[in-house]
Amino acid sequence: MKHLLFLSLLIFSFFSLSCGVVNTVAVNATTNIVDYGLEAIFEESDLDFAEKAIPGNLTLIEALYRAKDKDDDHLAFLLVQGYTGYTLGFVEDVDVERAKVLYARARDYGLKSLKKNKQFQAAFDQDQAAFKKSLEQFDNKDVPMIFWTANAWGNLINVSISDPEVLGDLPKVNAMMEFVLKHDEGYFYGSAHLYFAAILATTPKNLGGKPDSARYHFEKCFEIGKNLFVLPHLYMAKSYCVQMQDKELFQKLLTTIEEASLDSLPEQRLVNAIAKRKARTLSEKIDELFF
Asked: Which long-range contacts (CB under 8 A, 24 or more apart) does 88-94 make?
């Protein structure tokens, strides 16, 4: 009887272990497929198709994330990047409250992953100096997660500009983007430069805005992206040109976006297509923006 009990327990343990192994193998295999799927989405030029396809992909990634025995940093990264890109491209211009929820979700996935670093977690709620110091625990390989987490957080602040509690987080986002500039300024076509360019250009001079510095950062984006990644052109038009009331440059930048071929940077067709659509909407407001 004891032998039968032992055998039963052994079989049960083996079965449980096998199921766990099979589940892990299945999740890992599906994760690889998801990677290819997201690459395909970024190469998509049909905005209607992309808008409908991305939520399903994100739901699948969330399911895979939950199926892992431990939090998976790669899946977390895909969720941060996916939710941020989707919200920027398809939500924030039509539903600000929903955009706040989705940007916060993206930020929180990123912070959960970054807080696995004990020094970063310990310093997170301390003063700004301690927070900035804790970023020194990271290195070049952490640039993608830090950038996309800061990007989501920065966009959340941008759509919550009237909320002083959210605005109080801006120094942390700045510190994270400074980290990206220091360790890999060319990451994602120099988008850390784009972040600082937009902030410096949007802020009026009498409140600390620095249009000359903003222009420097925008031009670094153009240089790094070889004028093929046109999102910086959009942000320069809507921030720097409006603040400086430079209508001629505004029109020149929007023309550059309109004339850009989506095939010139095939791996970013979707982002460039989004920039084109936003540029057309912006051009319709020219009489409101320039006096």
From this structure: 88/155, 88/274, 89/47, 89/50, 89/51, 89/270, 89/271, 89/274, 90/47, 90/50, 90/51, 90/54, 90/274, 92/155, 92/159, 93/278, 93/281
Does residue 198 fall inside a structural domain? yes
Assess contact for 124 and 134: CB atoms under 8 A: yes
pLDDT-based confidence at 28, cuts 50/70/90? low
Q: Report the C-alpha gap between 175 and 102 in whole angstroms.
A: 22
Count up the domains in the chain and report the number. 1
Domain span holding position 219: 189-291
Q: What is the pLDDT of residue 161?
A: 86
The answer to whether residue 262 is domain-embedded is: yes
219-251: burial string, b at 16+ Cβ within 10 Å, e else: ebbbebbeeebbbbbbbbbbbbbbbbebeeebe
pLDDT at 278 over 90: yes
Q: Is residue 215 part of a domain?
A: yes
Answer yes or no: is pLDDT of 72 > 50.
yes
pLDDT of residue 167: 87
